[in-house]
Specification:
- By secondary structure, the chain is an alpha/beta fold.
- The protein has 5 helices and 12 strands.
- The strands form 2 sheets. Strands 1-2-3-5-7-8-9-10-11-12 form a 10-stranded mixed β-sheet, covered by helices on one side.
Length: 345
């Protein structure tokens, strides 16, 4: 009986020690987890990592940061002064917060911003200023389940100034896509997992560089013949469209749908987009050319000024040497005269 009791006590003690060790390990893990933002360099850019800290506001950070990861926190509002101190940011990650309100001037100071991730929030409305950011190439809005309520009334200044190349609107409960106007740089367009009730080729005719559209689980409720015009447009413009199931498009029912003609309006929109794209590229080329010329002129001027400075220093030094030589010569003549007078006397 005593032996049995001793064994039970040993087993109980072992279990207790095991639990204690596990609790200690968990505490150690918690203690080792970061409690404040950390800094590191990536691709020669200074980044601030504040992800997963459950913060309700962006703390005071170092100046000059170009990457800010503030994902997985509890940020709810973006005001005009929230990010105004960090105008050098190029990559901003605000995914998985609780953002519902964005002030119209929340991003206006971020003229270098290239990537903006606002995915998995509860955004109620988008300010037009986002689409006017001069450097914004990638915009992630996916996973905002309340965004669809304001998109239909979204007023955008056109043409959009942001050179968007990627736009992600997946899983936002959108039933009708907004009119973006001309998007001459857009390459990737993700509108998957939305209950779309219509899909017209007019929506894509102003995206002349479009290469891929993700339509996964977004057109399942549309009638086959309603898709015919858009599918033909994609095929003619070499746009890859991704679906979870292509079987519906490989049926006799789809083949028997009347083949619509591509209207002149669609082609006109497409050609206008191409014209805008060419104009933008020419402007960039001209700017680069002028910058090169300007850089060359600046280098020439700097070299010319440096040469003048060197010549000036040389002349000053030469003048000083001449003055010293004259002084020395005068002193020599005086000494010689003194010696001669002494000899005569």
């Amino acid at each position: 009986m005593k032996i049995k009791m001793i064994r039970l006590y040993i087993i109980w003690l072992g279990l207790a020690l095991n639990v204690s060790c596990k609790e200690l390990t968990d505490l150690e893990v918690l203690a080792s987890a970061p409690t404040r933002c950390t800094y590191e360099h990536a691709y020669d850019m200074l980044g601030a990592h504040c992800g997963g800290l459950r913060l309700t506001k962006i703390p005071s950070l170092r100046g000059g940061i170009e990457i800010l990861d503030f994902s997985d926190n509890k940020l709810q509002e973006l005001h005009a002064d929230t990010l105004s101190s960090y105008s050098s940011i190029k990559f901003l990650y605000l995914a998985e917060n609780q953002i519902y309100m964005i002030d119209k001037n929340a991003f206006v100071s971020l003229s270098y911003l290239e990537t903006l991730d606002l995915s998995k929030n509860v955004i109620l409305a988008l300010p037009d200023s986002i689409f006017q950011l001069p450097s914004l190439r990638k915009l992630y809005l996916n996973g905002n389940p309340l965004l669809h309520m304001s998109l239909k009334d979204l007023t955008i200044t056109k043409p959009i100034q942001a050179p968007l190349e990627l736009l992600d609107l997946s899983d936002c409960k959108i039933n009708k896509l907004p009119d973006w106007g001309i998007l001459p740089n857009l390459v990737l367009y993700n509108i998957s997992h939305n209950p779309l009730t219509t899909l017209e080729p007019q929506h894509f005719s102003t995206m002349c560089k479009l290469a891929k559209v993700d339509l996964t689980e977004s057109i399942d409720n549309l009638k086959l013949c309603e898709l015919k015009a858009t599918v033909i447009w994609f095929q003619e413009k070499n746009v890859y469209f991704h679906l979870s199931d292509y079987n519906r498009l490989n049926t006799r029912e789809f083949d028997n749908c009347p083949k619509p003609e591509i209207s002149a309006t669609l082609n006109a929109s497409y050609h206008l987009c191409e014209s805008v794209y060419t104009q933008v590229q020419n402007t960039k080329t001209s700017r680069r050319t002028w910058l090169t010329i300007g850089g060359g002129l600046a280098g020439f001027l700097v070299g010319f000024v440096l040469l003048l400075y060197i010549m000036h220093r040389h002349n000053v030094a030469q003048t000083k040497r001449t003055a010293k030589e004259k002084t020395a010569a005068a002193a020599g003549v005086k000494n010689a005269s003194t010696v001669l007078l002494n000899d005569v006397s």
